[in-house]
Automatic annotation (TrEMBL):
<feature type="binding site">
    <location>
        <position position="39"/>
    </location>
    <ligand>
        <name>Fe cation 1</name>
    </ligand>
</feature>
<dbReference type="InterPro" id="IPR005235">
    <property type="entry name" value="YmdB-like"/>
</dbReference>
<feature type="binding site">
    <location>
        <position position="178"/>
    </location>
    <ligand>
        <name>Fe cation 2</name>
    </ligand>
</feature>
<feature type="binding site">
    <location>
        <position position="39"/>
    </location>
    <ligand>
        <name>Fe cation 2</name>
    </ligand>
</feature>
<keyword id="KW-0479">Metal-binding</keyword>
<protein>
    <recommendedName>
        <fullName>TIGR00282 family metallophosphoesterase</fullName>
    </recommendedName>
</protein>
<dbReference type="InterPro" id="IPR029052">
    <property type="entry name" value="Metallo-depent_PP-like"/>
</dbReference>
<feature type="binding site">
    <location>
        <position position="8"/>
    </location>
    <ligand>
        <name>Fe cation 1</name>
    </ligand>
</feature>
<feature type="active site" description="Proton donor">
    <location>
        <position position="68"/>
    </location>
</feature>
<dbReference type="GO" id="GO:0046872">
    <property type="term" value="F:metal ion binding"/>
</dbReference>
<feature type="binding site">
    <location>
        <position position="40"/>
    </location>
    <ligand>
        <name>Fe cation 1</name>
    </ligand>
</feature>
<feature type="binding site">
    <location>
        <position position="180"/>
    </location>
    <ligand>
        <name>Fe cation 1</name>
    </ligand>
</feature>
<dbReference type="Pfam" id="PF13277">
    <property type="entry name" value="YmdB"/>
</dbReference>
<feature type="binding site">
    <location>
        <position position="67"/>
    </location>
    <ligand>
        <name>Fe cation 2</name>
    </ligand>
</feature>
<dbReference type="GO" id="GO:0004113">
    <property type="term" value="F:2',3'-cyclic-nucleotide 3'-phosphodiesterase activity"/>
</dbReference>
<feature type="binding site">
    <location>
        <position position="153"/>
    </location>
    <ligand>
        <name>Fe cation 2</name>
    </ligand>
</feature>
């Protein structure tokens, strides 16, 4: 199967780049399944139901989130009827929505997607390792699921790497989100799981994490909040990771970064059509 995962959409520039360009990418590359992290797509904070629908209509099969999932208050309500929107799995019992789900891909295959949040330098959550293990045990790769994609939303690269190795051989892809900066450590781990510490953001990289840079620079210097954070509005770079999996085992055969447009050096997988 041909999978694509895109990192956090930040603001209007990030989401419109993906909404405008994803349909052609899906068509040209004959992608079977696409996951997009949407936690910053509404002015940098959360996601509205209208934006969710636009991203799904553009070709995303699932939209994941993270610590910003509830920034738009309506999300607590509409997430119950939107099973293609995931929030972190390791929120307390009774939290609205779901953190993992099994979906049918365009080619008829079964794809499990889970969204889990780290605990290092982030608000305390339930143990992400124990929670994800239960979900993966219930949906074995190569038996129930043809592919399994894990969005590990976390600050610390150590915790993300640990999750990669913890799940190695049991899932197709462990990819980090949340730092908004793409890493260059994409690889297939010894057990066959594709891994990348962070997918980067889909947003304007002339910024601080996708936000207009003046206010973040001011806060670091003065420690006094001045203005609100607003998303930077220059041309976005679409940033993520592409994976090809073995149809029989569900494990990764190839993994490569994807960067399109904006300020970062462009790169497309060698196994994509040019
Ligand atoms: Fe984010
Ligand atoms: Fe985040």
């Amino acid at each position: 199967m041909k999978l694509l995962f895109l990192g956090d959409l930040v603001g209007r520039t990030g989401r419109t780049a993906v909404i405008d360009q994803l349909p052609a990418i899906v068509e040209t590359q004959q992608l079977d399944f696409v996951v997009v992290n949407g936690e910053n797509s509404a002015s940098g904070f959360g996601i509205t139901e209208a934006i969710l629908q636009d991203v799904l209509d553009a070709g995303a099969d699932v939209v994941t989130t993270g610590n910003h999932v509830w920034d738009q208050r309506d999300t607590l309500v509409y997430i119950e009827r939107q099973d293609r929107l995931l929030r972190p799995l390791n929120y307390p019992a009774g939290t609205p929505g779901r953190g993992a789900h099994l979906y049918t891909a365009r080619n008829g295959a079964q794809v499990m997607v889970a969204n889990v949040m780290g605990r290092v330098y982030m608000d305390a959550m339930d143990d992400p390792f124990a929670r994800i293990e239960r979900v993966v045990d219930d949906c074995p790769l190569g038996q129930v699921a043809d592919a399994i994609i894990i969005d590990m939303h976390a600050e610390a690269t150590s915790e993300k790497q640990a999750m990669g190795h913890f799940l190695d051989g049991r899932v197709s892809l462990v990819v980090g989100t949340h730092t908004h900066v793409p890493t260059a450590d994409h690889q297939i781990l010894p057990g066959g799981t594709a891994y990348m510490s962070d997918a980067g953001m889909c947003g304007d990289y002339d910024s601080v994490l996708g936000m207009e840079k003046d206010e973040p620079v001011n806060r670091f210097q003065r420690k006094i909040p001045g203005n609100r954070f607003t998303p930077a509005s220059g041309e976005a770079t679409i940033s993520g990771v592409a994976v090809e999996t073995d149809d029989r085992t569900g494990l990764a055969l190839r993994v490569a970064p994807v960067r399109i447009g904006g300020r970062l050096e462009p790169v497309l997988p060698s196994f994509w059509q040019s």
